[in-house]
Structures are given as C-alpha cells and as structure tokens.
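Possible regression after last week's pipeline update?

I re-ran a chain I had predicted before the update to compare outputs. Posting the input and the new output here so someone can diff against the archived version. Not blocking, just want to make sure nothing changed silently.
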Amino acid sequence: MAMGYEFEVTPVQLAAAYAAIANDGILLAPTLVREVRDPSGAVLYRHRPEPVRRVVTSEIATRLREFLREAAGEGGTGEQAQLTNYSVLGKTGTAVRFVDGRYVHGQYTASFAAIFPADHPQLVVIVKIDNPRGNYYGGLTAAPVTRTMLEQALASRRVAIDRGRLAAQDSEPALPRAAEEAPPGPPPVVVTLPYRAPQPSTTPRPVPDVGGQSIREAALALHRRGFQVNLRGLGRVVRTVPAAGESARPGSSVLVLAE
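New output (post-update):
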C-alpha cells in the first residue's frame, strides 16, 4: 500500500523486517544476548543467527535495497542520514499520532529505518521519535539522529561493526577467531516460498522432569517440549501437574509448583 497507516508494528518487528531485506530475504529470530563470558573473559556462549524462514526471494530483497538506496540518497527524504564515507539505505516515516481511537491533529511520530552499510550490511538501526517539536518529518528529525548514532558507533571500540569488512567491501566476511568460537549449534533450517506451516502433532508426550530446577529453566524445558506453562510460587520447582513422566497433549498447560 502507498500509505503506512493501515499497519501497526513494534520497533522490534520493524527491525526484523529490515534485517530480512538486508539478509537477502531470510528472516532471523531476534535476540537480546550476543554472548556470555566468564570472569576470565572466555566465551561460554555466543549467539548464532537463527533463520526462521525465507520471506522474499533474494532478487526481491536486492530490488528493495535499491529502492531504499534511492530513498536515502541525494534528493531522497532520508538523505540527512548519509555519512561522509559510507552509504546508508533507509526509509523515513512521518505519521499522525493515533490516541484512543482518533488521530491527534498537530502530533506526529517521526521515524527512520536504516541498513548500514549499503553494501554487505552489518547493522539495522530503527529510530522512532514521539511527538517531535518544530520539524516533525522523519527525514528532518529521525534521519539526522540515525547519522549521529552511526558516527558514534564507528568511533566506538565496543560496537558490533566489523571494520575489516568496511575497509575491504569486496572481501569475504572474516571468520570469528578460533578462541572465541562457540560450540556448534543445530544446523539452520530455512524453508522456501510458499511457506506451509507443518500441522502440529496431537500425539501425547511425556512431561519432562523439571523438579529442582529454577522457574526459568523449567519453563524453557516445557516450552521446548510443546507445552504451555502456568506458574505458581517462586524459587525451585517442587512438582508439576501432570507429574513428570505422565503423558499430555502438546499445547496443553502444565502447572508448575515452586517454593
């Protein structure tokens, strides 16, 4: 659709969508934790990209990136997001605020979604400004903020930017150092278009034994087996209903009692 007023998404959903465009059409699962280290600095866990599915073809993703290049290029609404030495892809957004079922005259939400750098992308940046004063267009408010954030990121030593890839855009991405490699995880699964979700299994399966575990550990184990979780109490798990080893249908609720 030409106008975006028909859609509502969260910033995380918007970032995931732009990341799919940057990643040649493959949607990745968002995550909050990049890595975990012990007190000595050794890597205990490092997140690996988790493909969800292919949402558009590689050709369509490439075409979308070209559209975003024009939107953020010279003469585009997002040109104020451009850096001196590196190109940025992106799109501005300017929307009348929607409060209690009505559009509020004179109040706006300005935004800018960026992919950086334009070639071999590494970062997606989403800037959303609620009710900016004065200039309220996304290209005049959120786009310059995006540029400032990227400039500060490039000047920082602690940011997820591979400067080697920035210096040699045509080279292959550098592999992680062997000392920081995380243990290999399960192979990624990417499904093709058109996507048809598999039918959920209804065969009863045993409830895992989560006795003595923390609530977080127990919930994770039960979710992985396909059960919903109802919690009662705090601390360590005492027992579950149904009990460990008893059978229950996937999707059914398991009551977790903790104390």
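Follow-up from reviewer: compared with the archived run. The CA atoms of residues 97 and 164 lie 42 Å apart. Marking as no regression found.
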